[in-house]
Design goal:
Layout (H helix, E strand, L loop, with lengths): L7 E7 L5 H12 L4 E7 L8 H10 L22 E4 L2 H6 L8 E4 L12 H23 L8 H11 L16
Helix pairs in contact: 1-2, 1-4, 2-4
Length: about 180
């Protein structure tokens, strides 16, 4: 008899699928590998994940990122997800309709790829955004899924995105 619980299918969306959504995908795989089957995609994916996003995952979190790639959300057309979480305002506004009734949430984070400045300053911003995403993912993973009905789970998931606002000035040189 198989007593393992099925994993929740979760999709993180961002415009370019090169920084925030890649960070979220790989961090949640590390935080809750038995609870979630995780994917990420973008409306207009970049040719590849941002090198600094990969560096943070590899150097700070000790993750193997060799499989990381930017993907279009069209690749997931027709797949039923339990959760669809947007990480940028553009993805929220242009998000397609997903089959089934996934829990939709918006967890905005500033785009670290937009920061101008030294490599050190850019690395610091990528680290700050990764930490914000990590804290949110830890909250999600700690929810008592078996005790929450769908409406309470949806509300709790949406609330996570409102917990912590991170403001980064991307138009001027970031200070290390």
């Amino acid at each position: 008899m198989n007593t393992t619980k099925p994993k929740f299918k979760l999709l993180f969306l961002c415009t370019g699928n090169s920084a925030r959504s890649i960070l979220a995908e790989f961090l949640l795989r590390k935080i809750a590998p038995l609870k979630f089957e995780v994917f990420s995609a973008g409306a207009s994916p970049k040719p590849a994940p941002h090198p600094q996003a990969l560096a943070v995952l590899r150097d700070q979190y000790k993750l193997d990122v060799t499989s990381a790639r930017s993907k279009s959300w069209n690749e997931f057309e027709g797949i039923e997800f339990d959760f669809v979480i947007t990480l940028c305002d553009n993805a929220k506004e242009t998000c397609p309709v997903w089959p089934g009734q996934p829990i939709l949430a918006h967890w905005p984070s500033p785009d670290p790829a937009e920061v101008k400045g030294t490599d050190e300053a850019k690395a610091k911003v990528f680290w700050q955004v990764a930490q914000q995403i990590q804290r949110r993912l830890e909250l999600l993973a700690s929810l008592p899924f078996e005790k929450l009905d769908a409406l309470k789970l949806a509300a709790a998931t949406k609330e996570i995105g409102q917990r912590e606002r991170l403001t980064i000035n991307t138009s001027t040189t970031a200070q290390p």
